[in-house]
């Protein structure tokens, strides 16, 4: 996992999760991360949101299976799909891609090399994740065309990476991780 660059001088630190249509993976990752941020007492210092690389679902809510899995996991839910815009880079500290295709697309959209460096894969923050020989082991598979079990797996992957991402955000904020209970 690469260290996160220092956040801009503005507060709060801003994180945007990005998948394809912004109705499955990225709203799920956003909800999980928001919960971790609140649990850590960093709600005033970190803002999380999400977007998609495409506009197919712009204005829609999340997929009903995403909502069901989030609710079953005890996560809050509030979402309207939108498409990521290159000009957003200037206002973001970190852009979290859900798979290697999104990573590539977002880095191409970045107006500057500094903006491209803000883009990271979510599962790069999961210490148990293995990139594999082709690097795709860090992808969160798109559950859209499958059944509920794919959404449950997606949630598990988001949860597994959330603590590592939170640690990176704490480091970027210059705060020490909270002591274990």
Report on this model:
With 181 residues, this protein is of the alpha/beta class. It is built from five helices and four strands. The longest helix has 26 residues, at 148-173. 41% of the residues are buried.
Question: What attributes does this structure have?
Answer:
181 residues; alpha/beta; four-stranded parallel beta sheet; 5 helices; globular
Instruction: State the secondary-structure class.
Output: alpha/beta
Number of helices: 5
Order of helices and strands: EHEHEHHEH
> For the CA atoms, what is the radius of gyration?
15 Å
Count of folded domains: 1
Q: Distance between termini?
A: 26 Å
Gross CATH architecture:
3-Layer(aba) Sandwich
Main-sheet strand order equals 2-1-3-4
- Summarize the biggest pleated sheet: 4 strands, parallel
Question: Could you tell me the number of beta strands?
Answer: 4
Oligomer class: single chain
Our estimate of the beta-strand percent is 5-15%
Shape: globular
Instruction: Find the CATH superfamily.
Output: Response regulator
Q: Which runs of at least 5 residues are low in confidence (pLDDT < 50)?
A: 176-181
CATH fold name: Rossmann fold
Helix fraction by DSSP (H/I, runs of at least 4)? 25-40%
Mean pLDDT over all positions: 92
CATH class call: Alpha Beta
